[in-house]
Write a sequence for this structure.
């Protein structure tokens, strides 16, 4: 089957060029076997969802576990109403479990058995774990879409079921998101109640996903060459790596623009000029990924860090939380001497443009 570079959400091995998802994660199997709960955090569009969906699939196929990746994103609409958030999360979870045909009881079976009419996450996770012949592994995606009371409620339920694992609660559970939950004070609206210890204080370890290396970019682009005969010169691959610093979405977006639009004919060799052209188009079009970063520049705590960096000033007295937030977003990273820099040359071009227009707009108002 023909494959494509993917820029729309998680990759699927049958239709997308992709690097093996499992090699992007550290050894999680041991952690899972040891009944640990943990956190996977990385900026948007780094490949978290792709990697964890694959891991869940591999674990289930191993015949040792029932593993599933479930998202809490739909709960984002109800930050102050945990009950409504939970109802919509449980609906989406049940749809996913049904779609994957996992052998787990449905909501009405759980209601009947427990006598609980208003189901919550804890009740459902307990019922699933008790009913499953194999230990249950749950990966909770988009955890930082939740905030305020809803986030607290969800984390507290995980914590409160934790002692009953693996028979009465998932053997292992991972929170997947942008922030390390230790620092999610802001994500939860900076509410005072959260400044104390984390409600997910059972967390033992947290992991992150790195950007692609030059070698990774080479291997990914080579898949297209192998499939179509269209060659990337090594200077072109080097330049793509330089411009993106291996940011996975950007790496795909540049190649996609070239092979599907600018140089569709596989006889055309992909050189540095084509890479430059693709970069210009992405920046001009401000594709989804760049747009969602631009959105963050509306936040004061992001601007107070990014603006001085762009104008080459020293960062002074920057609150540690704000700094960590900007690093978690993937807008900035640390240079070899530990200083803070904009994460890659493409962002470095996009950000000043966005800031300029943001200023024009606020001058209008
Ligand atoms: N294993 C992979 N190989 C190649 N590209 C990938 C891989 N995983 C992710 N990507 C790129 O990153 C993008 C975002 O992937 P996704 O899994 O949705 O990330 P996240 O969950 O971190 O936002 C994909 O659209 C694709 O461009
Ligand atoms: Mg994701």
């Amino acid at each position: 089957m023909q494959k494509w570079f993917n820029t729309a959400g998680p990759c699927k091995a049958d239709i997308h060029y992709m690097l093996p998802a499992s090699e992007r994660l550290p050894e999680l199997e041991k952690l899972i076997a040891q009944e640990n709960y943990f956190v996977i955090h990385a900026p948007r569009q780094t490949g978290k969802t792709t990697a964890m969906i694959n891991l869940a699939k591999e674990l289930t196929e191993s015949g040792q576990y029932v593993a599933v990746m479930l998202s809490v994103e739909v709960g984002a609409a109800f930050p102050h109403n945990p009950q409504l958030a939970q109802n919509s999360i449980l609906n989406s979870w049940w749809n996913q479990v049904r779609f994957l045909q996992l052998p787990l009881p449905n909501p009405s079976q759980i209601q009947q058995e427990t006598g609980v009419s208003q189901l919550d996450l804890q009740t459902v996770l307990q019922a699933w774990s008790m009913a499953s012949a194999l230990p249950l592994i749950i990966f909770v995606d988009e955890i930082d879409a939740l905030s305020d009371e809803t986030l607290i409620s969800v984390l507290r339920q995980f914590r409160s079921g934790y002692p009953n694992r693996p028979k009465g609660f998932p053997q292992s559970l991972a929170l997947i998101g942008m922030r390390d939950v230790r620092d999610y004070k802001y994500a939860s609206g900076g509410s005072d109640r959260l400044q104390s210890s984390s409600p997910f204080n059972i967390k033992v370890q947290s992991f992150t996903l790195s950007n692609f290396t030059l070698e990774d970019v080479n291997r990914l682009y080579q898949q297209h060459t192998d499939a179509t005969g269209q060659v990337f010169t090594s200077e072109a691959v080097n330049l793509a790596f330089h411009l993106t610093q291996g940011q996975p979405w950007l790496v795909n977006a540049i190649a996609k623009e070239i092979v599907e639009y600018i140089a569709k004919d596989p006889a055309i060799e992909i050189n540095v000029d084509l890479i430059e052209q693709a970069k210009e188009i992405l920046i001009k079009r401000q594709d989804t990924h760049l747009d969602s970063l631009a959105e963050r520049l509306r936040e004061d705590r992001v601007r107070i860090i990014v603006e001085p960096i762009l104008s080459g000033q020293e960062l002074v007295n920057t609150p540690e939380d704000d700094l960590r937030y900007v690093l978690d977003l993937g807008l900035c990273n640390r240079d070899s001497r530990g200083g803070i820099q904009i994460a890659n040359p493409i962002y470095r071009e996009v950000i000043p443009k966005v800031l300029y227009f943001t200023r024009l707009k606020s001058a209008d108002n």
About this structure: Confidence is low (pLDDT under 50) at residues 185-197.
